[in-house]
Amino acid sequence: MAEPEGAVGRSLPRSGARRLAFGRGRYSDDLRFPALLHLAFVRSPHAHARILGIDPAPAVAAVPNARVFTGAEIAEICAPWQGTMDHLPTMVSPPQHVVAVDRVAWQGEPVAAVVAASRAEAEDAAGEVAVEWDPLPAAAVRDRTLDEDVALVHPELGSNLCFSTTIGTGNSESALDEAAHVVDGRFSFSRHSGVPLEMRTVIADYDPGEGTLTVHGSHQSPWHQQDTLSRYLGIPEHLVRVVAPDIGGGFGIKLHVYGDEIAVSAVSRILGRPVKYVVDRMEAFVSDVHARDQAVMARLGVDGDGRIRGLSVDALTSLGAYGSLGRPPISEGMMTIMMAAGAYANERYDARLRVAFQNKPPSGMYRAVGQPIACAVAEQLLDWAAHAAGIDPVELRRRNYWSDEDYPLRTPGGLAIKRLSPRRCLDKLVGMMGYDALRAQQAELRKTGIHRGIGVATFLEMTSVGPAYYGPSGAHISTQDGATVRLEPSGTVRCVTSVIELGQGTHAALAQIVADRLGVAASDVRVVGGDTSTTPYGGGAWASRGLTIGGEAVWRAAEGLRANILELAGSILQADPSDLDLARGAVCDRGTGEPRIALSEIGRIGHFRHDTLPPGVQPELAVTRHYVPDAAPFALANGVQGSSLEVDVETGEVRLLDHWVVEDCGRIVNPLLVEEQIRGGVVQGIGGALFEECRYDEDGQMLNASFVDYLVPMAAGLPDIHVGHVETPIEETALGTKGAGEAGTVGAPAAIMLAVNDALRPLGARVTSLPITPESILEAVAAAERP
Amino acid sequence: MKAPRFAYIRPESLDEVLELLAEHGDDARILAGGQSLMPTLNMRLSRPRLLIDINRIEELKGISFEDGTVRIGALARHGEVMTSSIVAEHLPMIAEAMPHVAHVAIRNRGTFGGSIALADPAAELPACAVALGAEFVLANKRGRRNVAARSFFNGLYETERADDELLVETRIPAIESGYRSSFMELARRHGDFALAGVCCHARVDGNVLSDVRLAYFGSEDRPRFADGASAAAEGKAWSEDVKEAVKTALGDDLDPIGNFHASAATRLHLARVLTGRAIDRMVAAG
């Protein structure tokens, strides 16, 4: 039997990378538009203030071609929105204007939009807009937001509480009382943001002639944009087109709808001219969504054998002033309490979550949403429990994973798990690390005053979230994706997808899927997407869903085209289509593999020589399919990460020596792309572990809104990141993939925190706040030395 | 961010530059490598009326050695200083410091003179200049004067340079026989501004130190010469006791300014740790 060429599973280089290396990338800011106006925002210098008046006169005096739009003017054509969700009736979220009207609730909130002939002139004019402020007290100290004496972010709500909930089995406290060893900790996770290299960018062009709005922009979900622009600007949806050209990273930051971006379209609508806005880096820090920002108290009990007896978690998520449209801001906290220790057999678990507003930029999704917190808290407790029980931390984990016969199961946190492979991942990781040798080396070096640490953390990665969540929320978020696959007359193939390419290489993997199904080379498949007017409708790039959902749609479309090609070949060859197959660019005999007719012949005849076909044969050489993951709420990937590092206990420096990841994202379409995703994810996890933090003062002023002071990992300080794979394909799809885009970010902070604490253990010091800094290590060491 | 409007001029001669400075004074800024100036303009933190681009002025370029002194032209790029055989031979402290000065792209454009004239308190080169007894040559329309590094830095971005003066070169005594240097810094990431940094220079005879010069950066509003700590090591055979004495004395020399990267106490602690390590290494290098 002739097998297809099997492009799936191969580490093919992606064609898109070559284009970018040739300098042919076309990002939104590179595009040229005639009669373009440039927009700059006046943003609030206060975290909380009333706007008493806005005088545009000095701005227009300074730049005569400038025009100023206040929030009130924009509100006339754009209604405020509310980030409430139908399925969360107790979650509050106040109405939010796209540009502030009367009151600002965070430093950086847009107050007026200024357009001019150039960006420099728009900034000149924006600097001259006179705003009269009445500053108000701000809620800006994390963890104190719910205290009685703290200012209210939204006085009309009467409280800063956005949402609270409890989950669990109700019996963890008694279980903890009976446990042989109980460990606990108070953990803190800094506020950070995604800082993609390419800034948020939008060019809106309202054509008053046709009543169409065309928006080019750097966005992960153009469909979400299209829906929002249509509904809030009152433009019929079929007249709104959103195009996403090359995108320089998103990490979740660009899946949201932003008021400032909608305002650009509103201004274009008013002026009937194209208007461009590019967020600059300093603005990005106070306008891109922020994430994490969580304090967690947790207790874990184990029995004498190290088996988990019970776990309790109490999490407080500190939001910004608002959530986002259609994207609940409570996800960070919900993921934390749902997923903590989810890979481990435990029947006694209780958790509380409180989510509170602060006078800071709105909160949203950032790569791995809440899961790094769940992972770090649970894994650190397990490490401490292992030492309390006198059991090696790796062995303790092995004893506690769910057994294969437990699956499918529902964890006490509410996580539905079909199947996981943590034991296989752990065994492979331990081998890759040379775990025993590392431990021996660590013990030797400790005798010479060198403090090495080893951390091994098990992670779960919730990917490809389906309609069970977003459907009942009422949000206009599609969890479906679509694809059209078309045979060109020459026998090459075009694939039009709703999957958004933002640097992760998904389009290259889609080409491999098509190639696999149609028996052609991946280089003979061209994948395009990123235009809501020409591609099938879909969800976009978030929740590591591109291959699992969009890839399955492509698989199905390619399967449909394959059937059509074989049927057409059958009528041309007067053969039974079931006796035919596709391989090496030809229709061949299924039994012998002998080529019968080239795909280029099928294309030529199917497109140009209909006259030679039997009457009634209608070639269908383009097939569209959609896929929505309806059989499971999400695809749960899993894996284990390991970190080896050295702590200089006199200076507090952490030197990362090595990092390992073994992940199971189901069937792997392209190992190279998976490894890129894992490595990039680990690097962002290292950022969360050691560097990234939005620092605020008590008045809600961000102190480090530039890359000089907001630190991200840099290549020189990074260890080698070794990646291994375990493949457990999911059964719900033909393709069998799970997501891989967030795994690195989920597990890396935990592995590093565990390793730092492992290094500090002989000194009796602990760090439980991320990012871990030289200062926090020195303070922990000093605290341990104090009697 | 886009820079506010400014006038730009690129003179062909030093006299022309000095003439322009005499005329415009503080309304003008000198554009050398632009690695600090351009971001400052783009962030609209500074609004000079005129930028005077000195990149065409030949006599501000180059590195030379004569009569026991190394001359580093104001326009010498960091990358040039880093690879200079003259610097490697005669100014080992600066050679050691250069890889810590920002990153490759910045070193390709940024200049030695720019770093000195800007006087960022977290920068490496001003402190090296203080430790090594450098002199800065300042020129204006009327003439030239030399200012010792130890009396040049007045505070955060504040120096002895008058508004009509241009820093034209730095003159640094070459290391003498029997002397050794050691440079150490700590930063959150390699190339960042320092949390603490020390420049050590001394005559080392066996393990006996003399003419000890310790200078610090990343601590206060300017590079700081540590009189007390230097004196505590002077004439002493380096030992754990002397090391402790030096670290103790440093507490009186330094009054660090804390920020969110590290508190004052942490910065002092790090300066002490680095001092011990730097002198250990300097003594061991023999």
CATH homologous superfamily descriptor of the largest domain in chain A: Aldehyde oxidase/xanthine dehydrogenase, molybdopterin binding domain
CATH class of the largest domain in chain A: Alpha Beta
Derived structural class of chain B: alpha+beta
Strand content of chain B: 25-35%
Name the helicity range of chain B: 25-40%
Taking the alpha carbons of the first and last residues of chain A, their distance comes to 76 Å
Q: Gyration radius of chain B, to the nearest Å?
A: 19 Å
CA gyration radius of chain A, whole angstroms: 28 Å
Largest sheet of chain B: 5 strands, antiparallel
Average pLDDT taken over every residue of chain A: 96
Point out poorly predicted stretches of chain A. Answer: none
What is the H/E string of chain B? Answer: EHEHEEEHHHHHHEEEEEEEEEHHH
By CATH reckoning, the class of the largest domain in chain B would read Alpha Beta
Strand order of the largest sheet of chain B: 4-5-10-6-7
Low-confidence stretches of chain B: none
